[in-house]
Write a structure and sequence with these properties.
The protein is mostly helical. It has two domains: 576 residues, no CATH class; 99 residues. It has 27 helices and six strands. β5 and β6 form a beta hairpin. The radius of gyration is 36 Å and the shape is elongated. It starts with a strand and ends with a helix.
């Protein structure tokens, strides 16, 4: 079978994948960024208890330096990106026949007709085994640089926030140590050059989340939540292991003289060039998608994510904004060549990734409506927004998905930390029982929370509007509204996205009312949080306002051209290891329509709470949270819907009550039978055989042979001794006679011999 192989993929062809080993010192040494928080983890564990503030300053210093390095790396990347047009890679396309012989005149350019050498890769041999070299290294492109800046900044703010939030905690040092390791693990995942290294960082992220979610493990719900998160992610991680393994061997089949390849760049390039079998790509994509579903909380493996709110609020903010749950989305974006070909994203009308993402957006948004816990509202909101990102990647809107990941990190971190500020004041997360009217007592928290809410709802001109609208445009399903282009006609995805936008606006309006409006329903006198909490909130709120302007659509007349699609220009991989990224045509009619949908959601929810519930509260003389005769009490269908949502779609019942309880009995009985009939029987047979062998050895060998020989030698010795005793008379002449006789016999023998 003939196949087209880029010489770029052979070991001696230079770096024709659009990868260079050059670049500035910062681009070649990004490994220092994850190293710093990793070292702070070691330092805090070792010396933290002997330090004035339990080692928290060490973690803050490490993340602060890492953030500065990330910013400088970003500047270096922009310079590298803008000047890389002079580094065109000209690579011969080689035709390998069935014998592995290459043919070609070397006149053609590399994959895609000569791409700039943009990504900076640096590798070192880890170990060698079976003729394979296992490497560690870094792969730096726009995606990695963006993630480095975002993760280090959010982690730094969470560290600062935590010094006040967990002050006096019984495991203060332990908390900051693992918070640093959590950040280091995510940063390592971001810069990983190969799938094996990515897998290690992926699992380390999971271990850190288990420790931090179960930080207060003495309380059983907390330890249960940590265990649930750990086990659910292990289910998906089996898919990751399968996907990585399949891709390794598939790459080996496509590369002459190679056993396999863990290289992300090589794997993407092979997939995009059509050199990997479609079957292998489908299997690998499904396996990797399972890992994404568990890690990034996609339906139906999302159930662990709301329960993870049992951990400290800063941990929740870090998990939901910049680390664990976005790891799945990042992995899709990093290995997009595999997913793009495996799910046949280009030109499709629907695929598994797009459908799961779209369904997750609605599932998560609906669940947020019935939550009393403010953190769980935000948790289900995160599930919904992650669904947006996965859906965008599924429809081919790569840049929009990554841009939404970027903007979402800031306004969602702002909302989570804001919820923590509220809970810090009222000592509860229950919006219905212990909150209300807090805008009067906590003005800074209220204002920053409102900014985050507006950004999440997707109202212009805040960040969420620009990224959400790019996703809706990228579906390609907006033809009736004036848009053109895109990868396909994902009309269903457009409908799901629009519905989710309305739901998001509605449940966040409910959240704002229950928390900040009406009368205070808690106990005591709430107060505003301190500066270590408020300052990070205002920084995140400010970013939620401005970061959306980093990627304004082309043709936006109110902004200079330098701000139009700047984010995509620096973040999009354009080298040969990545599939071509299509750009849909902006549609102002769609932007207006989506804004009206959001305002409709706000109006409907606002009318219910700010008008009807407020009026009912005044009439009753007390602060109400719902109408006594609301829709769920009047309409059976609404009551059924509420019960379905309140029971979390019965998924927890399915997993624990049906699957776990339904299998543990038969499994226990099977294990008992195996134990009794196989293991115990084997032990019994071995024991019985040993006893029989021992009896034979004792009776036949020990008693007859060994003891017989010993007894015989004893009797011989005794007889000889008795005879010698008789000879021993004590007379010198007797001894002399014996010696004379012996000498005579000896002399005779010598004479005969000689």
């Amino acid at each position: 079978m003939n196949s087209l192989l880029l010489a770029a993929l052979s070991a001696d062809a230079g770096l024709p994948l659009g990868i260079t080993e050059g670049g500035s010192w910062l681009l070649r040494n990004v490994w220092l960024i994850p190293l710093l928080p990793a070292l702070s983890f070691v330092g805090i564990l070792t010396f933290g208890k002997r330090m004035p503030r339990g080692g928290s300053e060490l973690g803050i210093a490490a993340l602060g330096i890492a953030f500065v390095l990330a910013l400088l790396t970003g500047v270096a990347w922009m310079d590298h990106r803008d000047n890389s047009h002079d580094q065109e890679v000209h690579v011969a396309v080689v035709q390998f026949d069935d014998h592995g012989v290459g043919h070609g005149d070397g006149s053609e350019e590399g994959h895609g007709g000569g791409h700039p050498s943009l990504a900076v890769q640096r590798t070192a041999v880890w170990f060698q085994a079976g003729g394979m070299e296992f490497t560690v290294g870094t792969l730096v492109d726009g995606l990695a640089v963006m993630m480095l800046v975002m993760v280090t900044l959010v982690s730094l703010l969470v560290h600062v926030y935590s010094t006040d939030y967990v002050a006096g905690d019984r495991r203060y040092t332990h908390y900051f140590a693992f918070l640093s390791l959590f950040s280091a693990s995510m940063l390592l995942l971001v810069v990983s050059e190969n799938t094996l290294q990515l897998l290690c960082a992926w699992e380390l992220v999971g271990v850190c989340s288990f420790v931090l979610i179960g930080h207060w493990w003495e309380e059983k719900p907390n330890s249960d939540a940590a265990l649930k998160a750990f086990l659910t992610n292990r289910v998906g991680d089996m898919g990751l292991l399968v996907g990585v393994t399949v891709l390794f061997f598939a790459a080996g089949s496509a590369l002459p003289g190679r056993f396999g390849s863990f290289s992300i760049a090589e794997t993407n390039a092979l997939a995009s060039s059509g050199m990997l079998s479609h079957t292998a790509l489908v299997v690998a994509s499904c396996g990797l998608m399972a890992a994404v579903m568990s890690k990034s909380g996609q339906f139906f493996l999302h159930t662990w994510l709301p329960d993870a709110m049992a951990g400290p609020t800063p941990v929740s903010a870090l998990i939901h904004a910049a680390t664990m749950v976005v790891a799945g989305v990042f992995m899709i974006a990093r290995m997009y060549g595999v997913f793009f070909e495996g799910f046949q994203i280009g030109g499709s009308s629907i695929n598994l990734m797009a459908f799961i993402g779209g369904l997750t957006t609605i599932v998560g948004a609906c669940m947020a409506f019935v939550q009393r816990d403010i953190k769980k509202v935000l948790a289900y909101s995160t599930i919904s927004q992650l669904g947006y990102m996965v859906m965008a990647l599924g429809v081919g809107a790569w840049t929009a998905a990554v841009f939404h990941l970027f903007t979402h990190a800031f306004f969602k971190a702002c909302l989570f930390l804001g919820s923590g500020s509220v809970a810090h004041a009222v000592h509860s997360f229950d919006m219905k029982s212990d909150m209300g009217g807090l805008r009067k007592h906590m003005p800074h928290t209220y204002r920053t929370f409102m900014i985050g809410t507006i950004a999440l709802a997707g109202l212009p001109p805040l960040a969420g509007f620009w990224s959400k609208d790019e996703i809706l445009v990228g579906t390609g399903g907006w033809g009736l509204l004036g848009g053109t282009g895109g990868n396909g006609a994902y009309t269903l995805m457009l409908g799901m996205g629009m519905l989710t936008a309305a739901l998001t606006a509605a449940y966040m309006t409910r959240c704002v009312y229950l928390t900040f409006f009406g009368e205070f329903r808690g106990h005591g006198e709430p107060h505003e949080s301190g500066p270590r909490i408020i300052v990070p909130l205002w920084i995140l709120a400010g970013l939620a306002i401005v970061v959306g302007f980093l990627n304004l659509p082309t043709g936006f007349q109110l902004a200079p051209g330098s701000l139009q699609e700047r984010f995509g220009h620096y973040v999009e991989p354009v080298a040969s290891y990545f599939p071509a990224i299509s750009h849909a045509t902006p549609s102002w009619s769609l932007a207006i329509a989506s804004t009206l949908v959001v305002m409709g959601g706000i109006a409907a929810s606002g009318y219910y709470y700010f008008v009807k519930v407020e009026a009912a509260s005044k009439a009753a003389g007390t602060s109400l949270t719902e109408l006594p005769d609301g829709p769920t009490s009047r309409y059976p269908l609404a009551a059924m819907g509420y019960k379905l949502l309140d029971n979390k779609y019965y998924l927890d019942h399915l997993y624990s009550g049906v699957i776990a309880n339904g299998t543990k009995g038969p499994l226990a009985r099977m294990a008992y039978r195996i134990n009794q009939q196989v293991i115990d029987r084997t032990v019994d047979v071995v024991g019985e055989t040993a006893v029989k062998v021992g009896t034979v050895v004792y009776d036949k060998i020990d008693q007859l042979v060994v003891d017989g020989a010993v007894n015989a030698s004893g009797r011989a010795s005794s007889g000889m001794g008795e005879e010698l005793r008789r000879v021993n008379s004590g007379k010198v002449q007797s001894y002399a006679a014996i010696l004379f006789a012996a000498a005579t016999v000896l002399a005779g023998l010598l004479i005969v011999i000689v």
